Amino acid sequence: MTVWLLAGGGTAGHVNPLLAVADTLRRRNPEDEVLVLGTREGLEARLVPQRGYELVPIPRLPFPRRPNASALRFPSAFGATVRGIVSTIRDRDVDLVAGFGGYAAAPAYLAARRAGVPLALHEANARPGLANRLGARLTDSVGIAFEGTPLRAASLVGMPLRREIEMLDRSASRAEGIALFDLDPGRPVLLVTGGSLGARRLNATVHASASRILAAGWQILHIVGGRAEVTDPGLPGYRMLDYCDRMELALAVADFAVSRAGAATVSELSALGVPAVYVPYPVGNGEQRFNARGVVEAGGALLVDDADFVPGWVESSLLPLLAEPARVAAMAAASARTGVRDGADRTADLFEAALTAASARRA
Q1: Which domain holds residue 231?
Q2: Does an H or E element contain 154, and which?
């Protein structure tokens, strides 16, 4: 029996890949024990127990960005957290520590090194975070979701996807999705999504352009998110949802997408061969632009700055594209060529290989 300690959390971008790999490890060897290191404040506090895994909680310790009282307390608190994780590794006979970034990852990496157990990690974004930049210095087992991610010893494994996405047969599921969302089976579907909280620019522009898109022969499935500032115009062929609990069916019906360029979204759309216009989130370190770079360069998507995604751009650029079925089909094929469906298995393979190599070195 192998005991795995998977570290990561805070956001869905860290938790969902972690859980996808945890599920893969458990399917391969049901007798294995999978522990998840995370915080009580992040999504992992709810999602990990729901999935049937034990959460080993640690304090949430964001790295201080400026000199203040928190910065003065950080070294001792961080050191205590590392020592606590070392104790967990030894008490639970952990065989390998694997990290996915986020608050829990950095102390886990140092604890693995101190405890002398093998370490592996997965980076979901094309521009790696601080924790994984640290972790990549401590191991040769580094999996990345996007080609060109600047981490030492990186291997391209793709994004570990949710099982319902990984196994989705779009053709077989399309009729179910059409019925669920009350769409016309004879018209192509434009899927618009900005994530669970929505995206103001995407929502406003598509809402303002809806009548033109519908007149071009398309229908719209618009997931506006929880903070939307637009209301349903009640147009035939326009379906507005605050949230979508069956995202796999939304992807099954999508013939084209307009979306932010989060790592999971780009990976899911590419894995399923859905062409897209990506509008990267304009705040932060710019990783969304890098996430979309590969599929854009391959011809499977277009990239538009947030400030440029306005009704005039829809009129001049998106509508002519949607009017060319052959071009949409070519983009779909290019998107599929860049996508990875088995990222969870590839990542689990990487972790198992790290464990095997460590065992061979000790023999």
Answers
A1: 164-338
A2: strand 154-156
